């Protein structure tokens, strides 16, 4: 275990006056997490299309949901 984990826990990530907490996500981290989620969801869709694990209606429903929840909000 990290020897400083107790410090981060009890200070709630305080890193000095006027500085954001070290546990606060930056815009870059948020974007990176969205990108990873998007990539994983897309690969699931591709696998379903390639290997036929889902019916055409299932894939269409997944693709519509993917567009509505990921692509369209990112475009705004």
UniProtKB/TrEMBL annotation:
Domain of life: Eukaryota
Protein name, UniProt field: Uncharacterized protein
Species per Swiss-Prot/TrEMBL record: Triparma laevis f. inornata
